[in-house]
Design brief:
By secondary structure, the chain is of the alpha+beta class. The protein has a single domain (about 1-480), classed as Cytochrome p450 (Orthogonal Bundle). Helix content is about 50%, strand content about 5%. The chain contains 17 helices and eight strands. It has helices spanning about 1-15, 45-60, 75-85, 100-105, 120-130, 140-160, 170-185, 195-210, 215-220, 230-255, 265-275, 285-295, 295-315, 315-330, 345-355, 385-390, 435-450, and strands at about 60-65, 70-75, 365, 370, 375, 380-385, 450-455, 475-480. It has a four-stranded mixed sheet.
């Protein structure tokens, strides 16, 4: 006991004798021993609310120690552009969280989103760009539309099989539709909604999406790893199950039918052909890149659910979307991607959902000793971009806490987005799949609202500063509208 007390006293004396901030570094709260300033994050439901409050004390760029990690938080658009664009090369790394390694075969650099920037990652992104960022006038865009509209027909048939006289669990069907849109578009393959393995993988992807959007003490206190051993095994098992499904149900068939003398049939073919042509690519790079992009369907499914949650709380929004879709289709057909330009309010509703949900941008890491706004930033420092402030700050929006899709419409009724609105980040690490997210979210939302009146059925469980909803989330009441479709 005497030794323990002595040790505690020594740690306390060491802490009190430390300078408050290193010379040249941004100011910030004085860290506690061992945990740093992690205790401050408990004051709000999302750490980005804490960051906003701390910025009022320490300025738009401040330092904060979270456990063993030295961090910097950037809180205004000018400085965020400095980090993501002007000095993007200096901040191309990602946090070295143990969870990220577990999800990608022991090496987070297998993931495009969670890897450190490198020439290999640039190559992997270039392979994906044609398929994941299709231009409006391209054949790929036409294909995106064809896949989405065909799957929507299947989705609506599945919905009508439910007992709609009582609240329904809509999320699993939405996710299944999103997953099939992605597998059909990227792999020329789709699955029955009742396929047991398919349902398991869709659920697992959703579990992972929720997981990625959470924070854990072990991220910043890695010595807690033994306490999280079961959790880490669960992550590894999830990832392994997804990989086995993709190999057995998608990759093996593509390899058996690959025609080396013909253009690639889809993204999967393109990856396999590139594997044979590029000596710097290996099998791990290919399988994980495909897994990364297929997993993007979870982001769409969750965004749809968050949008529906907002709409049922604002019935006037649903009525306006219904009026818009009825005008465009005349009630004689389902809306498709090429109707988006004529349905600006529907698109604006999606943007307003992204703004109010304010899902965090993945943190960056300094890969060299550098500066932000004249403050020194050491190599290895984690940089948090506070887009919560960009999305909900009084300096950027009028009445920011209100849900108003019309804020994204010009006086002429066109969709407009201010420069500071960057829900998919910006710079060289911007989300490469954002166009697919926008396209398929629009198709699903427009068709759901066209065919059903949707109301809440109890409590809506939403987490602030997060576009993810729990895998087992809220139910909704769907009442079919009278349409000629």
């Amino acid at each position: 006991m005497l030794v323990l007390v002595t040790l505690c006293v020594l740690v306390l004396l060491w802490w009190m004798s430390r300078p408050k901030n290193n010379p040249g570094c941004a100011p910030g709260p004085r860290p506690w021993p061992i945990i740093g300033s992690l205790h401050l994050l408990d004051k709000y439901k999302t750490p980005f609310q804490v960051f906003t409050e701390l910025s009022k004390l320490y300025g738009d760029v401040f330092s904060i120690d979270l456990g063993t990690s030295r961090c910097v938080v950037v809180n205004n658009f000018k400085l965020i552009k400095e980090v993501l664009i002007a000095k993007g090369a200096d901040f191309g790394g990602r946090p070295d969280f143990i969870r990220f390694h577990k999800l990608f075969g022991g090496d987070r650099n297998n993931s495009l989103a969670l890897c450190d920037w490198s020439s290999l990652q640039r190559t992997r992104r270039s392979i994906a760009r044609t398929y994941c960022s299709p231009r409006f006038t391209s054949l790929q865009y036409d294909h995106v539309n064809d896949v989405g509209t065909k799957e929507i027909a299947v989705f609506l048939r599945e919905l009508r099989k439910l007992d709609l006289s009582k609240p329904c669990d809509l999320k699993p069907l939405v996710l299944a539709a999103c997953a099939n849109m992605f597998t059909q578009y990227m792999c020329s393959t789709s699955f029955d909604y009742n396929d047991r393995d398919f349902k398991t993988v869709v659920r697992t992807f959703d579990e992972i999406f929720w997981e990625i959007n959470q924070g854990y003490a072990v991220d910043f206190l890695p010595w807690l790893l033994p306490v999280y051993s079961r959790h880490m095994k669960k992550l590894s098992d999830w990832a392994s199950g997804i990989r086995q499904f993709i190999l057995a149900r998608i990759i093996d068939e593509h390899r058996a039918t690959l025609d080396h003398g013909s253009p690639p049939r889809d993204f999967t073919d393109a990856l396999l052909l590139h594997l044979e042509e590029d000596p710097n690519m290996n099998w791990q790079h290919i399988i994980f890149e495909l897994e990364d992009f297929l997993g993007g369907h979870s982001a769409i499914g969750n965004l749809v659910m968050v949008t529906l949650a907002a709409i049922v709380q604002h019935p006037e929004v649903a009525k306006r979307i219904q009026a818009e879709v009825d005008t465009v289709t005349g009630g004689k057909r389902r809306p498709n991607l090429f109707d988006k330009a004529a349905m600006p309010y529907t698109e604006a509703t999606i943007w307003e959902t992204l703004r109010t949900a304010s899902s965090p941008i993945v943190p960056h890491v300094a890969t060299v000793d550098t500066e932000i706004d004249g403050f020194l930033v050491d190599k290895g420092t984690v940089v948090f971009v506070n887009n919560y402030e960009l999305n909900l700050g009084q300096d950027y929006w009028n009445d920011p806490l209100s849900f108003k899709p019309e804020r994204f419409l010009s006086s002429s009724g066109k969709v407009v987005k201010p420069a500071h609105f960057i829900p998919f980040s910006t710079g060289k690490r911007t989300c490469i799949g954002q166009r697919l997210v926008q396209c398929y979210t629009f198709i699903i939302l427009a068709n759901l609202i066209q065919h059903f009146d949707i109301k809440r059925a109890g409590n809506l469980k939403l987490q602030p500063g997060c576009v993810a909803v729990p895998p087992d989330c809220f139910q909704l009441m769907l009442t079919p509208r009278r349409t000629t479709d």
